[in-house]
Amino acid sequence: MFIKQLESLRGIAALMVALSHCLIVFAVDQNSMIWTTRLWETQGTQAFLTRLLLIPCNGGAAVTVFLY
Question: pTM, whole model, 2 decimals?
Answer without folding.
Answer: 0.62
